[in-house]
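Q: Given only this backbone (381 positions), what sequence would you predict?
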């Protein structure tokens, strides 16, 4: 994504990663003064939409979170932020929701509306083709759901949109308001120098089947079918790579930071740090690996089931893979003082794009810096 890429996406017309509902999407509309308008064209693509839906770990986790916690949906008012093609909205409707607001600012909203109608859910699901910030509805919602995660968890800045929607539309937690996913945890660990290969990701196809009980044929007809690799991963390459990190390349216990979406402020989501201290680093390293986990938490374990979606080296592969942040050259073990690598990982939004500035300062006189919207790491000494 480029400089015009701000906080959103589409399924994923990220405007829609699945589409994205804030104002994250649609580079073709007119800018308001001072506004960053993200590009979403890459997500309005049949192959990319199929990739997202066909990511069994990702879509299956959301499906299980809804269907195994139906008490949070039955007779309730739900909002799907960044609804994209509307899959989460349709899950909510099938779980018995009274009303679902599928908020999608991009052109993917047309696909969502067509899919909702084709699956007979138009009396429950209302597709709202508006920014979250401009949307008005006549009621508070009981549960807010969104698939907002990007590379390195926060890339694409969709989390900000979800939190603004939470503050504007969601009932207080004390009154039963819930948010899915509920928590998100980002992990960081040094990468061991190793050439082993790791498992490949393979998406299920949505053709010739009613995937998750949903008829996708109308989406296949409406979306263009462009080259997947070129559309999906523009500009990603060395020294930053979105790859599958083999589990044996992680020899230290990772450090982590958990964001509680029920309570975290927009400001704290835009700027956070993860201090780290890794001991016994007596092996050569080539950089750092980063991945995330999200959890869907019911009010009480006895009333539902906690569902976890992980994207780490030991988890089922997903389209997110892991983020590998490489140094320009391997770091020998003898360069790590007393075998202890310590420092801090910093994440700050890039106000001019949909990316974050990721920075790692450590005690081996190295500073790694990256703008996630440009997928470029620089090493400064």
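A: Predicted residues:
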């Amino acid at each position: 994504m480029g400089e015009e890429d701000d906080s959103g996406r589409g399924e994923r017309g990220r405007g829609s990663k699945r589409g994205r509902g804030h104002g994250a999407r649609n580079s073709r509309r007119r800018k308001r003064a001072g506004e960053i308008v993200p590009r979403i064209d890459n997500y309005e693509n049949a192959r990319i939409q199929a990739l997202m839906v066909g990511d069994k770990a990702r879509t299956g986790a959301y499906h299980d979170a809804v269907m195994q916690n139906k008490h949070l949906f039955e007779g309730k008012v739900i909002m799907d932020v960044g609804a994209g093609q509307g899959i989460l909205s349709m899950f909510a409707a099938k779980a018995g929701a009274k009303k679902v607001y599928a908020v999608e600012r991009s052109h993917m909203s047309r696909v969502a509306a067509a899919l909702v109608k084709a699956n007979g859910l138009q009396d429950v699901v209302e597709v709202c083709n508006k920014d979250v910030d401009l949307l008005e509805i006549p009621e508070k919602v009981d549960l807010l759901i969104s698939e907002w995660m990007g590379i390195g968890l926060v890339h694409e800045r969709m989390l900000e949109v979800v939190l603004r929607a939470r503050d504007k539309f969601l009932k207080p937690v004390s009154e039963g308001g819930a948010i899915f996913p509920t928590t998100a945890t980002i992990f960081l660990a040094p990468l061991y120098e190793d050439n082993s290969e790791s498992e490949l990701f393979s998406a299920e196809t949505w053709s010739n089947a009613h995937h998750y009980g949903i008829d996708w044929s109308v989406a296949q007809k409406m979306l263009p079918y462009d080259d997947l690799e070129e559309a999906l991963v523009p500009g990603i390459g060395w020294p930053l790579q979105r790859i599958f990190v083999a589990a044996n390349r992680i020899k230290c216990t990772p450090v982590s930071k958990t964001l509680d979406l029920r309570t975290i402020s927009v400001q704290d989501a835009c700027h956070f740090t993860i201090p780290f201290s890794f001991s016994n680093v007596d092996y050569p390293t080539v950089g750092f690996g980063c991945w995330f986990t999200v959890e869907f938490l019911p009010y009480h374990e006895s009333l539902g089931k906690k569902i976890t979606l992980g994207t780490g080296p030991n988890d089922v592969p997903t389209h997110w893979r892991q983020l590998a942040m490489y140094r320009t050259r391997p770091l020998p073990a003898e360069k790590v003082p007393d075998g202890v690598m310590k420092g801090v990982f910093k994440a700050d939004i890039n106000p001019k794009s949909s990316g974050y500035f990721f920075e790692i300062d450590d005690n081996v006189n190295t500073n790694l810096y990256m703008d996630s919207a440009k997928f470029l790491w620089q090493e400064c000494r």
